[in-house]
Design goal:
alpha/beta, Rossmann fold, six-stranded mixed beta sheet, three-stranded antiparallel beta sheet, tRNA (cytidine-3-)-methyltransferase activity
């Protein structure tokens, strides 16, 4: 186990460690996640079935699972990445109101002061967007003129890289710095305004004690019938087994050599977090 001083350092300076990660790797570490649309077709609901089938076949040929090593954050070998395959996917849907009312609400603007994307009819938020490996494929694939995508990260370096990307279009996307665990920070959109919230390898990067509150806050941003889409690390996959003695911060929560952290979930723990948020 790490010392109490180190535990405090990794928490207080978490944003610094991620800033350093993105300063070193910029947008060259993770590949764009085109597999998203076969895992989560809700991200491109206007695409036809044949397009998604073709995309699925292409992804099967090219995909290498997205994993990070326990050491300096460098890539795993291809062989090791194929072993690191027990990531958990999850969809949690906010209870809808009666169907006919939901259908009407989905096409209405949210009644509040002006905010980015206020005129959109389909709104997606990605939390922990990094350099845009989810956001840009969504914008490229989803041609819905009513689409607006929000994306946030608590690394200011990552958000800078998103905003300076040639694919970044402020008329369809809004990138902002945000700490998921800071209850004093406000989101730029009102409650019950989002159709989808995406969390890809994000929840695992925060202290387990703060996960529940973070998800409860996010759930309040969803429209009735809206959903959260999650993919994250599963307990005892290869990425966890590679960690060495001294890298464990607490039960199933580890620190990598570059100071970034990761938690490994069971399906049961994830269910508890999201079901509680759904019912609050």
């Amino acid at each position: 186990m790490c010392s109490a001083t180190m535990l405090v350092d990794y928490e207080v300076n978490a944003h610094k460690y991620w800033n350093d990660f993105y300063k070193i790797h910029e947008n060259g570490f993770f590949k764009d996640r085109h597999w998203l649309f076969t895992e989560f077709p809700e991200l491109a609901p206007t695409q036809n079935e044949n397009y998604l089938k073709d995309l699925h076949l292409e992804n099967k040929r090219n995909e290498v699972p997205e994993c990070r090593s326990s050491d300096s954050g460098s890539d795993l070998t291809i062989k090791e990445q194929h072993k690191c395959s027990t990531s958990l996917g999850h969809k949690i849907q906010k209870p809808p109101v009666e169907e006919d009312v939901t259908q009407k609400l989905s096409h209405l603007m949210v009644c509040t002061d002006d905010f980015p994307g206020s005129s959109a009819t389909y709104r997606i938020l990605e939390v922990g967007c990094g350099v845009g490996n989810t956001v840009f494929p969504i914008l490229q694939t989803n041609s819905d003129p009513g689409l607006f995508v929000y994306c946030c990260d608590f690394s200011s370096t990552a958000i800078e890289l998103v905003q300076t990307n040639s694919e970044y279009d402020p008329s369809r996307c809004f990138a902002f710095v945000h700490d998921l665990c800071d209850e004093d920070q406000h989101y730029p959109m009102p409650k019950e305004s989002l159709d989808v919230i995406v969390l890809i390898f994000v929840l695992s990067a925060i202290v387990p004690d703060k996960m529940q509150k973070a998800i409860c806050r996010l759930s309040k941003l969803l429209k009735p019938g809206g959903m959260m889409l999650l993919r994250d690390y599963g307990r005892y996959d290869m990425a966890q087994l590679r960690f060495k003695k001294g890298q464990c911060l607490s039960g199933n929560f580890y620190v990598r050599g570059d100071g970034t952290r990761v938690y490994f979930f069971t399906q049961g723990m994830k269910n508890i977090i999201f079901i509680f948020a759904k019912n609050t």
